[in-house]
Amino acid sequence: MPVMKNSRGAAGKLPRPGKAIVPVENVKSETEESSQAKRSPSSPQGGPKKRSAFGDITNARKNAAVQPGKKKDTGKAGPKRPQKSCTANVVAKSDEASLKKLQNKPSVEDVTGGTKVKPVQRGRPVEEEKAPPEPALEINDIDKENLNDPFASAEYAVEIFSYMKEREEKFLIPDYMEEKQKDISKTMRSVLVDWMVEVQENFELNHETLYLAVKLVDHYLVLTSCMREKLQLIGSTAILISSKFEERCPPCVDDFLYICDDAYKREELIDTERDILQTLKFDINIPVSYRFLRRYAKCNRASMETLTLARFICELTLQEYEYVQESASKLAASCLLLALKMKRLGGWTPTLAYYSGYEAIELHSLVKRLNFLVTYWPDKNLKAVRSKYSHKVFFEVAKIAPLDMLQLDEELKRDVERR
């Protein structure tokens, strides 16, 4: 298998003098789900740097109805009563007469059942039967606490994630390696994603940028046949596009030429960017599992360490071709459930089932596959993700011992019996 062009050395180079480094956001307390550590001390520039944090616009919903404000009392007297006219008196008397006639009418028998039905009287509302109240579920309102946060978009959080789950059906990825690609293999794709993880670290990009870039590569390869010498060009261009979509200050074209060790020309990268966007019809708002994962972790009020462990599991799946056909929301839910099991924090709660739309039994098969991925290292040469999450800034979650397969299977069965 051919090796990527300078895939290892390129990502580890120092940036050119004068290049603005985007600071990384602060790592806050474990209970703050919005804080995201983006660097490891192994990067060439040194330890993690500060970055202005984005407000998470997808982590809240306003469930409590806002009471409309009462009208101010102006202190004025009420409106004057209109004077009665002769015409009004005549109409009122005729109404009273007709009402008395209606009340004196005999009741009508229903021909179908013989029951008596009283005629409806004018001026009296008909009382409708009220449905019995539904039993209350033990579901926590995770958005109520963010109603006063203008960056949380608490009013639209549920609608946003419902829309993202609907869009998942549009972005399902088939098995394109056997059908479309003749010159590249699954192993080459894994090497490319491993290199993209290093680029995300060295450029201090958001994790959403990495996930979207991998999605762009997969969707582009579904529609276009690729030669192996152009695979790294496609990967770097995908990061450029996703950076423009997700980042406040995305890297420039020269930066991507630099990390590729000038293996490609500027015109090639720009032409590839145009080709990818036109092939995908500029529809790149693709749902990624990382966004769902943060939402579900907030539903469970998971600590930052638990969320980071779930992120580590989820990021491992980026390199594995066998997981490209899984939906982003289901993959995120399964990663969080496995992280909860590894941390001995219980199982799938009613709140998680309500907000995710998945019952625990639907996730068990995928959870077992993920535990197998964490336990057995498929390719020892792909070290980027495990090395990244072995540092203290990521709580060294990659060093947590995985669960025994039989033990995990027994725990999942017990959870089903309890429910």
How would you describe this structure to a colleague?
By secondary structure, this protein is mainly alpha-helical. Among the domains are: about 1-10 and about 165-285, Cyclin-like (Cyclin A, domain 1), CATH 1.10.472; about 290-419, Cyclin A, domain 1, CATH 1.10.472. The protein is about 45% helix and about 0% strand. It has 16 helices and 2 strands. The chain has helices at about 5-10, 85-105, 155-170, 175-180, 185-200, 205-225, 230-245, 255-260, 265-280, 290-300, 305-320, 330-340, 350-355, 360-375, 385-390, 405-419; strands at about 110, 115. The protein has a two-stranded antiparallel sheet with strand order 1-2. A hairpin with a 6-residue loop joins β1 (about 110) and β2. α7 (about 230-245) packs across α9. The longest helix is centred in the N-terminal third of the chain and has 19 residues, at about 85-105.
